[in-house]
Design brief:
Blueprint: H1 3-12, E1 15-21, H2 28-37, H3 47-53, H4 59-70, H5 76-91, E2 95-102, H6 104-108, H7 114-132, E3 135-143, H8 148-158, E4 167-171, H9 183-191, E5 195-200, H10 206-216, E6 220-223, H11 231-239, E7 243-246, H12 248-253, H13 265-270, E8 275-277, H14 282-285, H15 289-300, H16 304-317, H17 322-338
Parallel strand pairs: 1-2, 2-3, 3-4, 4-5, 5-6, 6-7, 7-8
The structure holds hypoxanthine (HPA) and zinc ion.
Zinc ion is lined by residues 19, 21, 171, 199, 222, 280.
């Protein structure tokens, strides 16, 4: 399909973001602005030099830069500005529902308190709900390179805010930090009413996806790219309707795949997996939702029906109510009937 036409179609789809680290939406322009007002020196002299540094060979090289960037966030207003900038950006892309990850430990370990982080984000999310009609859920992620004990401290710190936090996730350095390391804290999180997700099978093996399902008991998998090498696992994902929350531009940027035309999403759809497309850390990987849809559709030559399926899958995998889901399935289908 012709590129402009494909971009126009993608723009018009009502979309859902289910895999977005708010710290990964920190655009260099805003990073410089906040660093200046907080009087923090950045290790770069210009926005151009920051962007030039965004070349990664693997997940860890990215994480080192991502955690460094987050150091300039100190005050509630900083977290508000970060979140509001993200929400206005995705509103322009017709994203109607977001389920946002945040990494409390990246901030609390620097002495920024949990309430500062969550109050700033929450104020922006409420404003977007009222002014931009974007619904939201919030997911706090435990950093898997830290201990389970540290995750328990984070769980404790979150409890005064449990009405505004919907779930917990697991992110950061995957290899060597299997899901089973967090068995107890996930069980305790569920007991407090949190829904459960985890990054698994991004760089780590399919065994980590099994652990996330069987030991942590997650309801969906973030990434999960590695599942196709394991037929029994594919069957499990299909039978139990476990969605894979994929991030194609991230996968290329972090060299999880060599080129976009190797992305497994089309094969996953063929196998009946509820695969969905999202942006992960768009300020670092160069693509918000539309760009992820566009690059994937282009490289894999996806049909209109496959693009429609991806859009519907994201609503299905979301934590919207059944009534809300039905409303959006109809809107998506009506939209595709007009093109
Ligand atoms: N993987 C693991 N941890 C992360 C990522 C990711 O893609 N983005 C932010 N933290
Ligand atoms: Zn992620």
């Amino acid at each position: 399909m012709e590129s402009t036409k494909l971009r126009t179609i993608i723009q018009g789809i009502p979309k859902v973001e289910l895999h977005l680290h708010i710290e990964g939406s920190f655009e260099p322009e805003l990073m410089f602005k906040i660093a200046k007002r907080n009087k923090i020196a950045l290790p770069y002299d210009s926005i151009e030099l920051v962007k030039a540094a965004y070349q990664f060979n693997n997940l860890q090289e990215f994480l080192d830069i991502y955690y460094a960037g987050a150091q300039v966030l100190l005050y509630e207003q900083d977290f508000f500005d970060l979140t509001w900038a993200y929400l206005t950006k995705v509103h322009s892309e017709n994203v109607v529902h977001v389920e946002v990850f945040f990494d409390p430990q990246t901030h609390t370990d620097r002495g920024v308190s949990f309430d500062v982080v969550i109050n700033g984000m929450h104020r922006a999310l409420e404003k977007a709900k009222n002014e931009l009609n974007i619904s939201y859920r919030l997911i706090m992620s435990y950093l898997r390179h830290l201990s389970e004990e540290a995750a328990f401290e984070t769980l404790e710190a979150s409890l005064p805010f449990k009405d505004i936090i919907d779930g917990v996730g697991l992110d950061s350095s995957e290899i060597g930090n299997p899901p089973s390391k967090f068995k107890k804290v996930f069980k305790a999180s569920a007991a407090h009413g949190y829904k459960l997700v985890a990054h698994a099978g991004e760089e780590g093996p399919s065994a980590y996806i099994w652990e996330a399902l069987d030991i942590l008991k997650v309801v969906r998998i973030d990434h999960g790219n590695r599942c196709l090498s394991d037929e029994a696992l594919v069957k499990r994902l299909v039978d139990d309707k476990i969605a894979l929350i994929l991030c194609p531009t991230s996968n290329v940027a972090l060299k999880v795949i060599k080129k976009m035309d190797e992305h497994p999403v089309a094969k996953m759809l063929e196998k009946g997996i509820i695969a969905t497309i999202h942006s992960d850390d768009p300020a670092y990987f160069g693509g918000y939702m539309n760009e992820n849809y566009y690059q994937t559709a282009k490289a894999l030559n996806l049909s209109i029906a496959q693009i429609q399926q991806l859009a519907l899958n994201a609503f299905q995998a979301s934590w919207l109510s059944a009534t809300e889901k039905e409303k959006w399935y109809k809107k998506v289908n009506d939209y595709f009937n007009t093109i």
